Amino acid sequence: MSGASDxxxxxxxxxxxxxxxxxxxxxLILTLAGIPVVAEAADGKEAIAATLKHxxxxxxxxxxxxxxxxxEAARRILESRPGQDTRVIMLTTFDxxxxxxxxxxxxxxxxxxxxxxxxxxxxxxxxxxxxxxVISPRVTRRLLEEYTRVLPLSASQMQERYPQLSAxxxxxxxxxxxxxxxxxxxxxxxxxxxxxATVKSHVGRILAKLGLRDRVQVVVxxxxxxxxxxxxxxxx
Length: 236
Fold this sequence. Notes:
By secondary structure, the chain is an alpha/beta fold. It is 50% helix and 10% strand. The chain has helices at 4-7, 20-32, 44-54, 70-79, 100-106, 118-129, 137-147, 155-161, 170-180, 185-192, 196-210, 215-224, and strands at residues 13-16, 37-41, 58-62, 87-92, 111-113. The chain is globular.
């Protein structure tokens, strides 16, 4: 990250949306909350250019934009070296937008509906800047169940497709599955009879070992690896 959460400074934001009124509304909300908007963009290409120039902490990215859509722009930003310290929140009009799953899989830290309340928008930006995600794992699970059809993998298939999972300890694997089921740190701690601080440490190590940005990507990987089946309430 650019250090906003560590230094106590508010996150620096780029707003990317093809509607001038939407950008203006978000800018006003953030400005009143003391969050600087360093640039605006009307399409995906402008969003990339603004991000690479200003190195914001967070990009609010509309999914559906002309010239280049937000999904492709987010993917290019997150795959670029200059964009590795930037988090992306996707904006959508529909809570089950067909592109949301692809955005999460590409590395976005979550999504917000465009009619989000001002206080929720501000809280979401601060949450993402601090390194977490802005949608609950339960909402992520609903999206994944809607848009993924995971076939059960054998142990050898799972190892071949997701070799990084072998780096996890048995306890870390338990925590990963609990996160994928939508449990909070407090709920995981209670179920494993450990402290929340211990769970937080486990989650941090899981993210580091798997090369993931946040809990949302943990959920995505768990579904893609077949550790959690759509509609299932427990791990295989």
